């Protein structure tokens, strides 16, 4: 029921036709408008404006036709143009009223309130403008409350997102630290293994070198010592001299023993 009432209250003013050529176009457009053929009505109103550019009544009714075709952006411009050009209080009040209706359809409640107020300044007894003004105020309040709730929800979401991010970052830091500690332990273990292997290889090499040295010494011991020919001759001569001296000494001792011996034979 409220929707029907609102629709009735948002009904647009349509200017009556006139006798001149452009006015005949307006009258023909009005007939189409009454029949609900808003597209053809638009064509006739535009033809009227071609006959008489800036014709305020043609501009006003063209705004009506565009409003009925839900082209609210275009109707806004047309009704604003009428408001700026006409000096007729009744026509200007109607233009403000229809401008308020177009703005309402676009959910521009604050702007529509201003339009209805301007309409009422020129026509304080317009009941429809009064009703629509209060309706626009109600819708603006609802819009503001909805916006506040959306802002609150967004703030809550942002706060929750921040908490989730902080928690995620904290968990990531813990994981990174844990991974780094594990990496350090693994590196330390690997370094120890490498060092142990290096030490083992060194021990094996040292043992191998020691065995090689022992084998060399053994081989050297087994091999007869080589002497020169001169050294051999000298050694032979020395040996012969020692034997000669020894023989002479034995002969001297023997002769001495024979000379000093007493005869035990009785003569």
Brief write-up:
The protein is mostly helical and 267 residues long.
Oligomer: single chain
Given as residue ranges, the uncertain stretches (5+ residues, pLDDT < 50) are: 1-11, 15-19, 261-267
Write the CATH fold name of the domain at 2-145.
Serine Threonine Protein Phosphatase 5, Tetratricopeptide repeat
Backbone structural class = mainly alpha
Computed Rg: 65 Å
The string of secondary-structure elements, in order, is HHHHHHHHH
Instruction: Report the total helices.
Output: 9
For this entry, give a set of tags:
Serine Threonine Protein Phosphatase 5, Tetratricopeptide repeat; 267 residues; mainly alpha
Protein described:
- The chain has 267 residues and is mostly helical.
- The protein has a domain at 2-145: Tetratricopeptide repeat domain (Serine Threonine Protein Phosphatase 5, Tetratricopeptide repeat), CATH 1.25.40.10.
- The protein contains 9 helices and no strands.
- The longest helix has 96 residues, at 127-222.
- The protein is rod-shaped.
- The protein starts with a helix and ends in an 8-residue tail after the last helix.
How would the blueprint of this fold be written?
Layout: H1 2-9, H2 21-34, H3 38-51, H4 56-68, H5 72-85, H6 89-105, H7 109-122, H8 127-222, H9 229-259
Helix pairs in contact: 2-3, 2-4, 3-4, 4-5, 5-6, 6-7, 7-8
